[in-house]
Write a structure and sequence with these properties.
Blueprint (H helix, E strand, L loop, with lengths): L3 H8 L7 E7 L10 H19 L6 H11 L2 H4 L5 E7 L2 E7 L6 E5 L5 H8 L4 E6 L4 E6 L4 E3 L19 H5 L15 H28 L7 E4 L2 H10 L5 E6 L8 H32 L3 E2 L2 H9 L3 E7 L6 E3 L6 E3 L10 H11 L3 E5 L10 E5 L2
Parallel strand pairs: 5-8, 8-9, 11-14
Antiparallel strand pairs: 1-2, 1-4, 2-3, 5-6, 6-7, 10-15, 11-15, 12-13
Helix pairs in contact: 2-3
Length: 380
């Protein structure tokens, strides 16, 4: 299964089309999940029909073969979450299981339809939980509604042996004594063993921290909660260099509580960060708009995006504005709702901002400061 956080920068790249995007809600359990592969096959038919209209001279079988293979994968359909995104292009195919339901939609265009994935990555209510002991590390991703364990990442060690921690058998077994008459403290076997255990734990914690930071650092600002016994909090915080590590913490290992309880306790700690962040973003927009350095007009935002002026773009989580952005001129055009080959203008704006190093945050509609679906704060 592909890693959305790891892949997303590549999804923004310009590639040879056509680009196929298929989204649908899915279900976690039987019998509801029995309908999911049926709906997926219907989506494949819609993709094929759209391809025949937009690319009548192109051989479509190679593009659709991996979609058909996925439809026939029974093991996959028994392990779905709440939503599904499948993206395909020449020599490219990615599948993402999503923690939020998404509307059914198929799009054939020159680029991928990414707004539902933007919501997964850029929503302000996202967080992570690092479950840590001296013997194992687990990573979870969640939002206010759901929390799931991450299929472990290659760069993050799960156990001390994964981190290539060296054993110090001799040091653990032998007894160390200071020279006769010296002022050095005599160290006995138990003390030496404990020192070795502590050093091993420190090396493991450093490796976990480094792996998580390399995997997620700079990609988003989702807070990271540490879930561990009290004695492990101090050591991990002492060695951690991750700016996303929240001061709020869970003083329990995830194995000691249910996943739903872990989610509830985590969200209770994350919610103040969430509210504070949204308030700060909206407040910054309003202050900038008073100085004519922000706008909610889509045409104005399009011109500003192409000029590289947009520092932060707020996107309404529930809005779809059929249309497109001309990335050469900044002109926006509007399409017809329901046309399968018409993408989302808000999606185009968000992608352009991300390509230029700006920040995109997907915001619940009740928190949006404008009704157009997008609110941009400018750099100048």
């Amino acid at each position: 299964m592909a890693s959305l956080a790891e892949d997303f920068p590549d999804l923004l790249d310009t590639r040879d089309g056509p680009c196929l995007s298929l989204y649908q809600p899915t279900h976690r359990s039987h019998p509801d999940n029995q309908q999911d592969p049926i709906r997926f096959r219907n989506g494949i038919k819609a993709l094929e029909e759209s391809l025949q209209r937009t690319h009548p001279d192109r051989e479509t079988r190679p593009l659709l073969e991996p979609f058909h293979a996925l439809a026939a994968d029974d093991a996959f359909w028994n392990r779905t979450l709440d939503g599904l995104a499948v993206l395909g292009a020449p020599d490219f195919f990615r599948v993402y299981r999503l923690q939020r339901s998404v509307p059914e939609r198929v799009v054939v265009a020159d680029s991928f339809h990414l707004k539902p994935l933007l919501r997964m990555l850029q929503s302000a209510d996202r967080y992570r939980v690092l479950g840590l002991s001296r013997h194992e590390a687990k990573l979870y991703e969640g939002n206010r509604d759901v929390l799931d364990e991450v299929e472990w990442l290659a760069g993050v060690p799960r156990t001390p042996s994964d981190a290539d921690v060296e054993e110090r058998d001799a040091e653990r077994a032998m007894r160390h004594y200071g020279k006769s008459g010296s002022s050095k403290i005599t160290r006995h076997g138990t003390d030496v063993r404990q020192d070795a255990i502590d050093r091993e734990a420190e090396r493991f914690f450093r490796a976990v921290d480094r792996g998580v930071l390399e995997e997620y650092g700079g990609r988003d600002s989702a807070p990271l909660l540490l879930a561990a016994l009290p004695e492990n909090h101090h050591l991990f915080r002492r060695v951690s260099r991750n700016p996303a590590l929240a001061s709020a913490a869970l003083y329990a290992h995830p194995d000691s509580i249910s996943l739903d309880e872990l989610r509830a306790r985590a969200w209770e700690l994350v919610q103040p960060y969430y509210v504070e962040r949204l308030s700060g973003l909206v407040g910054a927009f309003e202050a900038a708009r008073a100085r004519h350095l922000a706008s909610g007009d889509l045409a104005d935002i399009g011109s500003a995006v192409v000029a590289g002026r947009v520092a932060t773009l707020l996107i309404d989580a529930d809005r779809v504005v059929p249309g497109s952005l001309d990335t050469a001129t900044g002109a926006v055009s509007f399409g017809e709702l329901g046309a399968p080959d018409t993408d989302d203008l808000l999606d185009d704006l968000a992608e352009a901002v991300l390509r230029q190093g700006g920040e995109v945050v997907v915001v619940p509609p009740e928190r949006m400061p404008v009704r157009s679906g997008a609110a941009a704060t400018y750099r100048y």
